[in-house]
Amino acid sequence: MAERENFKSRLGFILIAAGCAIGLGNVWRFPFITGQYGGAAFVLIYLFFLLIFGFPILVMEFAVGRASRRGVGCSFKVLEKPGHKWHNAGIPMIAGNYLLMMFYTTVTGWMLFYFYRMVTMGDLMDMTPAEVGAEFTNMLGNGPLLTFWMVVATFAGLAIVALGLQRGVERITKTMMSALLVIMFILAVRVLTLPGAGEGLKFYLLPDFARLKEAGLGEVIFAALGQSFFTLSLGIGSMSIFGSYINKKHSLLTEAANICILDTGVALIAGLIIIPSCFAFGLKPDAGPGLIFATLPNVFAQMPAGRICGSAFFLFMAFAALSTLVAVFENIIAYWMDAHNVERKKAVRWNFGAIVLLSLPCALGFNVLSGFEPFGPGSCVLDLEDFLVSNTLLPLGSLVFVLFCNSRYGWGQENFFAEADTGKGMKFPKLAVLRFYFKWILPIIISVIFVLGYLQKFAPSVYNKIFG
User: Fold this and answer.
1) How far apart are CA 419 and CA 248, in angstroms?
2) Is residue 27 part of a domain?
3) Which helix (H) or strand (E) holds 297?
4) For position 288, what pLDDT does the model report?
5) Which backbone phi and psi does 64 adopt, to 5 degrees?
6) Domain that holds residue 139
């Protein structure tokens, strides 16, 4: 068996694992749901759920990866007891990685196109708000354009993975993540100097619990719980693969804490850029996903040096998306290397063609396939694929990790705690209540998220009664 690859540095592991978590959910979704659900009060609830929910599941994924020294396609088989069937969960999890890439490549292409357009044309800066919104709609209607940028995104991500773990994934992702953090800091400083940004800052940082009541406390709690779960990309093994590449010098609680802090910091700074910008120019911070493409270009158009700021913003968005692409592609390629003994570059070549073909329905779903509306008028292929990943595979996969690590029929709590606590740094407190929480309460919370996600989509009247 070939020797397992390892990261060259601990910083590389932290930045790459954080890069997987730091995706469009942080810099796109987090600011607009924060605006939608009342600002700072929502952020506090989100941070609480991240600590008690997202963090322990992240540790479990890392533990399974580090103990097995394999990606999710093989890790359960290495750790399970003889005769057990936990390894059957590996294939749906790998399928979840492919399904995620079927729409994430297209959305990454949007970011690359908008960065290219800002740098080379800057025409968005001269348009009215209505015209900017129309341009986003025109882009979605252009199938060849979306397909081209989807292919560019797929090629860029897999080209990095083809170079290897240290020379490609680690070295280039470290550079992208470092640049992302620098760009975000510069943009945040620039935005906070805008006249009127102070009101947005107050909305974002000063809790006003009356806003929670206006938005509906139950709805806000579910949104915060969901965000704390989805932000870390838990449940399809895209984190456990990086656990398989690290040594045992530091405890997994310490490593997971570093990644949660970095992931949350980026989300908070993204809000610090977007929400005060909206307040400074009289725009609503709860404009939904269109905030990025239809609203923010108008903000940059009104700023001094707006084209430069706009280009920097879409560059950091592109880096955030590409870092996730690279991380998930590495998980996919590692599966073929671990489970089928395929050489890395050959696995990359095969998967380039496969992922491009699998991504075509999403790229064409806004134009050629626009008649396919899986959830009724206004829905599209992307909505279906996103729902299957976010509301089905992520919660069910996370449930598998939690049960495997805490059930005596799986790997078991003793093995999990021993692996998580190995190395310097933070350890789990030896409390019976913590073990009870991991074994019984966490599975119930995940099951509730799964059920509520389906009710919200298919039985909204029931969902509204629950949170009414």
Assistant:
1) 9
2) yes
3) helix 296-302
4) 59
5) -60, -40
6) 10-466
Residue 325, C-beta contacts closer than 8 angstroms, at least 6 positions apart: 101, 104, 105, 108, 153, 154, 156, 157
State which amino acid sits at residue 428.
Answer: F
What would the two tokens of residue 36 be?
């939608």
Instruction: Please report, as a single letter, which amino acid is at residue 215.
Output: A
Bridge partners of 250, per DSSP, are 424
Q: How many Å apart are CA 280 and CA 297, to the nearest integer?
A: 14
Cα distances (angstroms) measured from residue 118 to each of 181, 310, 315, 374: 20, 7, 10, 33
Q: How many domains does the chain have?
A: 1
- Listing DSSP states for 218-258 in one string gives HHHHHHHHHHHHHTTTTTSSTTHHHHTT--SSB-HHHHHHH
Q: Does residue 419 sit within a domain?
A: yes
Question: Is 159 among the domain residues?
Answer: yes
Measured CA to CA, the distance from residue 110 to residue 149 in angstroms comes to 7
What residues contact residue 55 under an 8 Å CB cut-off, 6+ apart? Answer: 256, 257, 260
- The span from the CA of 238 to the CA of 42, in Å, is 27
Question: Residues 219, 79: contact at Cβ < 8 Å?
Answer: no
From residue 215, how far is each of 207, 219, 346, 373 by CA, in Å? 14, 7, 51, 29
Question: CATH number, domain at 425?
Answer: 1.20.1740
Angle at 458 between CA 456 and CA 463, to 5 degrees: 35
Structure tokens at 160: 């990095």
| Amino acid, res. 353 | G
Polymer length in residues for the chain: 468
**pLDDT number for residue 216:** 85
Residue 318 lies in a domain: yes
Mean pLDDT, 10 residues at a time, over the chain (468 residues)? 78 88 77 83 92 96 97 95 95 97 96 93 78 88 97 98 94 91 88 87 87 84 86 91 94 96 90 85 67 73 81 88 93 95 96 98 97 95 95 96 97 97 96 97 95 94 85
The CA distance from 421 to 407, in Å, is: 18
* Tokens found for residue 118: 């800002």
